[in-house]
Amino acid sequence: MANTLTNLIPSVYAALDVVSRELTAFIPGVNRDFKADQVAQNQTLYVPVAPANTTASITPAMTVTAASDQTIGTKSVTISNFKVSSFGYTGEEVYSLDQGPGAGSVQQDQIEQCIRALANEMELAIWTAAYKAASRAYGTAGTTPFDSTNKLAFTANLKKILDDNGAPMGNRSLVIDTTAGAALRSLTQLTNVNEAGSSMTLRDGELLNVHGFSIKESAQVTTATAGTGASYQTNNASGYAIGDTTIALDTGSGTILAGDVITFTGDTNKYVVTTALSGGSLTIAAPGLRKALADNVACTVAATSTRNVAFSRNAILLAARLPKAGAQDLAIDRQVITDPRTGLSFELAMYPGYRMNKVEVAIAYGVSVIKPEHSAILLG
User: Is a pLDDT exceeding 50 seen at residue 203?
Assistant: First the structure.
C-alpha cells in the first residue's frame, strides 16, 4: 500500500480542473517569504519596520554631529493555524467502489475537495486580516462600485490613497467580489475595444490592469457587519494632530469594532478601526489622521458593507508550509502536491488502521498585515 498515493497523484492533478473551485485571488497576490515559511508552531517571526525620518540643515564643523536615535518598530507573523482535511475508507468500501467507478477516481475528487476547503479557509483568513488593517477606505457602503456614473473613479481614488501613503507603484492588486466584477465588466471603457485597447474584457471577461491595479475576484470577499456605535464625539480638549492613531470618544453608545470604517465631521477621509472601541478610545490604522481634529467632533460608523481590498504585495504576508511529522509518525505514505490554482503546496498522507485507511491533506499557515499604509478598502 506504500505506493497508493504515488499512483494517485497524476490523476489528482487531472481532477483539479473538474471539482468546483471558488475564486482565490488573495493567496497569489500577497507576499510570500521563505524565512516566514520556516517559523515553528506558534513561534513569532518579527519583521523590522523603520520609522519615518526627518531632515536638518548642514552646518560645517570640525566635529561630526551626533545621529538622532531611532526606535525600530516591528510587525509579526505567527504560524498558528495547523489545518487538515481528510476522509477514510474501509476495505469493504474500497472493494465496493472498485466494482463501479473505481476507488481511485472517487478519491481523486475527494482529495481535491480537501484542497478546496483548505484554500478557501486561507483565502478567507487573508481577506479578514486585510480589511481589518487597511489604512483608509473609499466608496459608499451598500452600493456596488463601478456604477455607470462614477465608473473608474473608484480605482483612481484607491490609487490616490496608496500613492499618498507612499506605497510601491508596482505589484498592486485590487481584489473584489463578483458583484463588483460584473459591474466593472459592464463599463464601456473596458468592453469597447477602441477605448480599452484590448478585447480581453469583452471576449474573455478578463479584468484588465486599471490604474496600476491587477484586478481579481475572490469568493471570500463578502459583507462585514458594522458595529452599532452612534452619536460618539472626539474627547480631547487639545484635539488631535495629523498622524494620530489613538482617538478617545465619548457621549455615544453602541460598539465600534475592529474593521469598522469611521468618518469625522469636516474630514472626508474614511478611516479603518484596527482596535475596537474599549475604555473610551479606539485605534485607527497607520498612517493615522490626515486632517487635524478638534474636541467634540462627531464620529460616524459606516454601515454594513462589502469590503473589497486594494493592496501592494508587500502589505500582507502569508507564511505557509507543510506540517512537520515526528520520527514515529504512523503514515505509510506521504507526498507533496501543489495546487496550480493558488500555488500552495499541501501534504498528502495516508494512515493505516484496522481494515481501513485514512487519507488527509494538511497545511500550516499564518497571516499578518505588515504594512497597513499600503492597503485600502473599496466599500461595496
Answer: no
Angstrom distance (rounded) from CA 170 to CA 215: 13
CATH 3.30.70 assigned to domain 12-48+75-223+307-380? The reply is no
Per-residue pLDDT tens digits for 134-152: 999 999 999 999 887 778 8
Ramachandran class of 250: left when φ > 0, alpha when ψ lies in -120 to 50, beta otherwise: beta
User: Can you say whether the dihedral through the CA atoms of 258, 129, 372, 263 is positive or negative?
Assistant: negative
Instruction: Determine how many CB atoms are found less than 10 A away from the CB of residue 58.
Output: 7
Please give the Cα distance from 350 to 358 (Å, whole number). 6
Residue 3: the pLDDT is 44
| Pairing of β 298-301 and β 261-264 | antiparallel
The cell numbers describing 307, all together, are 469590503
For residue 349, CA distances in Å to 87, 313, 323 come to 11, 32, 11
User: What are the two backbone dihedrals, phi and then psi, of residue 338, each rounded to the nearest 5 degrees?
Assistant: -105, 130
CB 254: neighbour CB atoms within 10 A?
Answer: 12
Report the distance separating Cα 210 and Cα 218, nearest Å: 17
Predicted local confidence at residue 13, as pLDDT: 57
Q: What is the pLDDT of residue 194?
A: 37
pTM of the model: 0.86
The β-bridge partners of 349 are 334, 360
Q: How many CA atoms lie within 13 A of 326 on its CB side?
A: 3
Return the domain boundaries, the chain. 12-48+75-223+307-380, 226-303
Is the confidence at residue 87, as pLDDT, over 70? yes
